[in-house]
Write a structure and sequence with these properties.
alpha+beta; Jelly Rolls; Arc Repressor Mutant, subunit A; 4-stranded antiparallel sheet; 11 helices; globular; transcription regulation; WH_DNA-bd_sf; Crp/Fnr family transcriptional regulator; transcription; DNA-binding
């Protein structure tokens, strides 16, 4: 894992994470002095349930899957995706030193990393940081509840469209690598179901899929095809993550 001090990073990367962009410049600089930039390889496990966490992560263009029931190469059931809109390590914001979910890098990329003792010190010293992080805890709880509802009540085609939009929101790079096996694992369904749902979206010219590489062709159409949970997630993020002194939220749907 490649590590780079925060003070040697390019200025654009400083604001790439939307949580950090929501802080006023002095507060953001105070936090970043305790951070280092790391390159996260795909497949890296950042946290395990019940294990003591060493760091929290603020992704820049990496994507991290939070899930349960993972064994070996099986990612288990994915409950949430974290990218440039958030952080990995929500339990640390609530006083815990251990994770409750498995955090696995599903798309390689960069992130800010901060050691747990340094994060705790920053939270004690920074009222604005505490406020931002408390709101993000609420966002995370809302999205976990939405994911549970989605898994139980919505059709696979709409869930797949939602997942693709969420992935692009968190790291807008295309084409994205996503095999049917990976999509099935993320959605907690059989591969055959994902193949059928992806074929339906491709037939409607909403996505293009070739040899494991996927491109979102018609984002507006894909949003219309997504289940209502995607709009609900966007709304909860926009409502709860009000910016006070920082920069405006960015991204296709402010998620």
């Amino acid at each position: 894992m490649k590590v780079q001090p925060a003070n040697s990073a390019d200025p654009g990367a400083v604001r790439a994470n939307r949580l950090l962009a929501g802080l006023a410049p002095p507060e953001r600089a105070f936090l970043l002095q305790a951070c280092e930039r790391v390159e996260l390889p795909a497949g890296a496990v950042l946290m395990r349930p019940g294990r003591r966490a060493t760091h929290a992560y603020f992704p820049l263009d990496a994507i991290v899957s939070l899930g349960v029931g993972a064994t070996g190469r099986d990612h288990g059931l994915e409950l949430a995706l974290v990218g440039a809109e958030g952080m990995v390590g929500v339990p640390l914001l609530l006083g815990s030193t251990a994770s409750t979910l498995r955090a696995t890098v599903t798309r390689a990329g960069a992130a800010w990393r901060i050691a747990v003792p340094a994060l705790q010190l920053q939270l004690r010293a920074g009222e604005a940081l505490r406020g931002v992080m408390r709101r993000y805890v609420l966002v995370s709880l809302a999205q976990l509840a939405q994911a549970a509802w989605c898994t139980r009540h919505h059709r696979l085609e709409g869930r797949l469209a939602r997942w693709l939009l969420m992935t692009q929101d968190r790291a807008p790079r295309e084409p994205m690598r996503a095999t049917h096996e990976e999509l099935a694992a993320a959605l907690g369904v059989r591969r055959a179901g994902v193949t059928q749902a992806a074929a339906a979206l491709q037939e409607r010219q909403l996505i293009a899929y070739h040899r494991g590489m996927l491109t979102l062709v018609d984002r507006a159409g894909l949003r219309a095809a997504a289940c209502a949970c995607y709009a609900a997630d966007c709304a909860s993020y926009a409502r709860l993550m009000q910016r006070n002194g920082g920069e405006a939220a960015t991204g296709p749907d402010v998620l």
